[in-house]
C-alpha cells in the first residue's frame, strides 16, 4: 500500500507531504483544482517519462518520492530479479533536473525506467476512464477468467514448456535449412578430412623431422667438418691434444712451488679428459654418418606435404592442423548424422507438444468451469449498479495454435438491454456502462488475487443517485482487502471513505499553488454538502451530508 507521497517543485505544487492509510481514501476537489497534477506526479514516480515543462521552478530540481508498504505482496523474488535491495518499506524516488535529465531510485539504488515500470505494476494501479478500454482486450479478459479458474500454476508451467517448444522448433528449422548447404559441402569436407587424417598428424614431430632432414641433406659437409675437427685435436705435435700435454708438462715442473700452480695443473688435466671425450664423440659421429638418398627423399616429401597443408589452411603449426581436422570431422559427422538429428529433434517436439496440449486442456477446462461463476457475479453486481438487463455470453474454445496463455480462442460478448443481440464490449457498452463493468470486474478479482493498491480516477463519470451509492459500496467492500483510492465528484461515493482529502488551489505571494489537505469530520461535512448543493451551504445540504456520512 502507498503510505506516503512527497512532491516538490512539480507543476503547481511547491511542496506537498501527505500520509495515507489502508482502506478507502477519497480525493475530491473542484474542476481544475489540480487532481490531474497529483495523478501526474504519482505517474512519474511509477515510471512515466519525464517532461522538463513539468518543473515548476526551472532552476531547481523536481523531486517526487513515494513510500510503499509491500510486506504482503510477496515481491522478494521480483526484487532479486531486478537486482534490488528488498525492504518492506520500499521508497521510490524520481528526480527531474533543470537540465532535463531524469533519475530514478528504488531504496536509494539507481534504476532504469524499465525496472521502475516492472515494479510499479505490482504496487499501484491508476485506473482512468481511458484504461477502462482494457477490458475489451482478449488478454485482460483471459486474466480475469484465469484468476477465477485458479490457472496460475498451469499457466506458469505452460509458458515454460512453450518457451522450450519454440526453442526446439527454431533448432529444427535451422537443421532443415542448413541440410542443403551441409550436403553440398560434405564431399569437399570429406576430401580435406581424408587428406589430413592420412598424414597421422598426432604422431608428427615437425622439429625432429626438420633436424633429420638437415642432417641427411648435408651429410658430406658434416663428414668433412667432423674429420677436420678430429685432425685439429689429434694431429701429432701440432694438435690440441699434444699441445695440451706440453702445457701440462711445463706446469708440472712448478706445481710444487705453490697452490695456485697446482690448481692450474688440475684444471689442465680436466680439460685433457674433456678433449679425449670430445675426440671419442667425433669418431662415433663420423663413423655413424649414413648417406641414404631414399630416406632423404622420403623426409623431403613428408615435409613438403606438411608445408603444403600449412599454406592451404593458412596455418603454421601441426596443432592448428589438428584443430582443423577435428572441426572437419565434426562437420562430416553432423552431415552424416543430420537425418538422425532431425528425427531426434522432431521426437523432442512431439513429446513437448503432448505436455503442452495436456496443460492447455487443463487451462481450458478451468476456464470453462469458471465462466458461469464469473458471468453470475458480473450480472449480479451490474444489477445493483443499475444495469438489470446486463447479460454476458463468454465462450472459450481450443484452437490448433499455441498462444502465450494457452490454445484458447475467446468470445466475450455483452448486451445491456433486453431483446438486443450480443456484441463485443467495445461495441455494446457505453462509456458509463464500461466503467461499471470494470468496477465489477475489479471487485471480483479482489476476491481471488492479491491486487496492488488501486486508484479509481472518476470511474463514476456518468452515474448518479442510487447507482453512485452502490459503486461506493463496492469500493468500500474492496477496501477491506486492499488499499483503494477514489477521485470522485459524487458525494454518495465521497461519504464512503475512511479518509477524505481535498485538492485545492490557493494564491500565495501572487503565485497560484495546488495543495492537498486531509479533512476532519466537520470539514468533510462541509465538503460533501458543497458537492451536494454548491458553495452556498443550506441546512438541508448539511443535513444530507451528515446523513450520508452516518
From TrEMBL:
CDD domains: ABC_RecN. Residues 155-219, 318-362 form a coiled coil. Keywords: ATP-binding, Coiled coil, DNA damage, DNA repair, Nucleotide-binding. It comes from the Bacteria. Residues 2-508 form the RecF/RecN/SMC N-terminal domain. The keyword DNA repair applies. The keyword Cytoplasm does not apply. InterPro entries: DNA_recomb/repair_RecN, P-loop_NTPase, RecF/RecN/SMC_N. SUPFAM superfamilies: P-loop containing nucleoside triphosphate hydrolases. Belongs to the RecN family. NCBIfam families: recN. May be involved in recombinational repair of damaged DNA. This is DNA repair protein RecN.
Amino acid at each position: 500500500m502507498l503510505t506516503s507521497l512527497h512532491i516538490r517543485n512539480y507543476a503547481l505544487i511547491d511542496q506537498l507531504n501527505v500520509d495515507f492509510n489502508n482502506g478507502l481514501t477519497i480525493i475530491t476537489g473542484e474542476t481544475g483544482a489540480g487532481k490531474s497534477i497529483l495523478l501526474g506526479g504519482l505517474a512519474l514516480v511509477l515510471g512515466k517519462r519525464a517532461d522538463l515543462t513539468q518543473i515548476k521552478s526551472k532552476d531547481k530540481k523536481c523531486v517526487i518520492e513515494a513510500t510503499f508498504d509491500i510486506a504482503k505482496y510477496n515481491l522478494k523474488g521480483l526484487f532479486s530479479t531486478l537486482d534490488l535491495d528488498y525492504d518492506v518499506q520500499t521508497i521510490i524516488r524520481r528526480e527531474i533536473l533543470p537540465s532535463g535529465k531524469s533519475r530514478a531510485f528504488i531504496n536509494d539504488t539507481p534504476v532504469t525506467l524499465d525496472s521502475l515500470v516492472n515494479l510499479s505494476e505490482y504496487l499501484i494501479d491508476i485506473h482512468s476512464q481511458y484504461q477502462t478500454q482494457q477490458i475489451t482486450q482478449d488478454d485482460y479478459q483471459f486474466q480475469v477468467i484465469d484468476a477465477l479458474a485458479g490457472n496460475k500454476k498451469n499457466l506458469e508451467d505452460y509458458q515454460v514448456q512453450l518457451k522450450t517448444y519454440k526453442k526446439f522448433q527454431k533448432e529444427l528449422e535451422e537443421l532443415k535449412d542448413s541440410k542443403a548447404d551441409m550436403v553440398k559441402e560434405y564431399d569437399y569436407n570429406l576430401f580435406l578430412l581424408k587428406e589430413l587424417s592420412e598424414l597421422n598428424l598426432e604422431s608428427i614431430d615437425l622439429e625432429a623431422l626438420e633436424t633429420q632432414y638437415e642432417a641427411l641433406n648435408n651429410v658430406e659437409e658434416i663428414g668433412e667438418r667432423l674429420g677436420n675437427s678430429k685432425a685439429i685435436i689429434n694431429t701429432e705435435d701440432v694438435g690440441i691434444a699434444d699441445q695440451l700435454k706440453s702445457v701440462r708438462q711445463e706446469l708440472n715442473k712448478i706445481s710444487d712451488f705453490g697452490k695456485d700452480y697446482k690448481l692450474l695443473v688440475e684444471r689442465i688435466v680436466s680439460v685433457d679428459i674433456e678433449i679425449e671425450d670430445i675426440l671419442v664423440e667425433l669418431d662415433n659421429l663420423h663413423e655413424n654418418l649414413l648417406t641414404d638418398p631414399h630416406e632423404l627423399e622420403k623426409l623431403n616429401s613428408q615435409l613438403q606435404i606438411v608445408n603444403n597443408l600449412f599454406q592451404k589452411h593458412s596455418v603454421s603449426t601441426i596443432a592448428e592442423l589438428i584443430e582443423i581436422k577435428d572441426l572437419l570431422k565434426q562437420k562430416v559427422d553432423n552431415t552424416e548424422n543430420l537425418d538422425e538429428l532431425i528425427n531426434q529433434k522432431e521426437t523432442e517436439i512431439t513429446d513437448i507438444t503432448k505436455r503442452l496440449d495436456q496443460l492447455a486442456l487443463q487451462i481450458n477446462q478451468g476456464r470453462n468451469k469458471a465462466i458461469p461463476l464469473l458471468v453470475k457475479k458480473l450480472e449480479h453486481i451490474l444489477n445493483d449498479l443499475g444495469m438489470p438487463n446486463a447479460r454476458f455470453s463468454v465462450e472459450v474454445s481450443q484452437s490448433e495454435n499455441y498462444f502465450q496463455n494457452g490454445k484458447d480462442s475467446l468470445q466475450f460478448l455483452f448486451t445491456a438491454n433486453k431483446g438486443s443481440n450480443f456484441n463485443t464490449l467495445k461495441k455494446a457498452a457505453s462509456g458509463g456502462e464500461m466503467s461499471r463493468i470494470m468496477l465489477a470486474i475489479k471487485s471480483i478479482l479482489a476476491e481471488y488475487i492479491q491486487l496492488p493498491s488501486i486508484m479509481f480516477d472518476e470511474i463514476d463519470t456518468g452515474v448518479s443517485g442510487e447507482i453512485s451509492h452502490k459503486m461506493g459500496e463496492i469500493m468500500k467492500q474492496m477496501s477491506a482487502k486492499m488499499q483503494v483510492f477514489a477521485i470522485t465528484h459524487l458525494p454518495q461515493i465521497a461519504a464512503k471513505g475512511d479518509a477524505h482529502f481535498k485538492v485545492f488551489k490557493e494564491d500565495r505571494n501572487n503565485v497560484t499553488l495546488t495543495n492537498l489537505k486531509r479533512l476532519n469530520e466537520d470539514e468533510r461535512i462541509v465538503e460533501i454538502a458543497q458537492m451536494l448543493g454548491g458553495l452556498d451551504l443550506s441546512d438541508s445540504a448539511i443535513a444530507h451530508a451528515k446523513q450520508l456520512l452516518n
